[in-house]
Amino acid sequence: MSDRERNLVWMTFTSPRFRYAKGEQWELHARRIVVNFHAGYARHVDDPWWSEHFEALSQASRELREFWDSHEVLDAMDAPKTLHCPNLGILNFDLVSFHYLNDSNLTVSIHVPHPDGTVDKMQQLLIDYQSQHSEQLESSPRV
Q1: Overall pTM > 0.90
Q2: What is the pLDDT of residue 72?
Q3: Inter-residue contact 92 to 79 (CB < 8 Å)
Q4: Is residue 1 classed as helix, strand or coil in its secondary structure?
Q5: In a 3-state reduction of DSSP, which class is residue 114?
Q6: Is residue 62 included in any domain, yes or no?
Q7: Under a CB-based contact definition with an 8 Å cutoff, are residues 54 and 67 in contact?
Q8: Cα–Cα distance measured from residue 81 to residue 21, given in angstroms and rounded to the nearest whole number
Q9: Is a pLDDT exceeding 50 seen at residue 51?
């Protein structure tokens, strides 16, 4: 996966898989992403990376252009999130986000699973992953 494909803004507007995972909350998520991207772009107007990224996204997504042109102001980074996982079904989380004190360009986001079965599903996912990748996990260097 390229750097561009790992970028949350790019993923939001170009990945059908990501859109599916966000389910009915995709549009609200996408609008919030555009608001944050718009603010970052305004702070870095002289940085070619931002211009290039915006141009590429604008060409790739009609929805990004539409949301960008609306100049919405959305608040509440903290919000309930629902993800649609093909293997596990519906997963519900509370999203808690904050800016890193030493670099306001970085946002730390924590997905806190709801006790509605999401915690159990996440634990099962971890157990399945560990059993499928036990050799790799055992041979990987410890930090």
Answers
A1: no
A2: 67
A3: no
A4: coil
A5: coil
A6: yes
A7: no
A8: 11
A9: yes
The predicted pLDDT at position 76 comes to 47
The answer on 119 and 56 residing in a single domain is no
- What confidence tens digit (pLDDT) does each residue in 80-139 have? 788 888 888 999 988 877 777 787 777 788 888 999 999 999 999 889 888 888 777 777
Boundary of a domain, candidates 19, 41, 75:
75
Calculate the alpha carbon distances from 89 to 20, 56, 125 in Å.
Answer: 12, 33, 12
- Length of the chain measured in residues: 143
DSSP assignments along 41-100, one per residue: HHHTTT-HHHHHHHHHHHHH-HHHHHHHHHT-----S-EEEEEEETTTEEEEEEEEEEEE
Q: 94 lies in which domain range?
A: 86-143
Q: Please check the confidence at residue 10 and state whether its pLDDT lies above 80.
A: yes
Number of Cβ atoms within 10 Å of the Cβ of 32? 20
State which of 50, 75, 100 marks the end of a domain: 75
Whether residue 52 is contained in a domain is answered as yes
**Are 34 and 98 in a shared domain?**
no
Q: What angle do CA 2, 137, 135 make, to 5 degrees?
A: 110
Question: Is residue 122 domain-resident?
Answer: yes
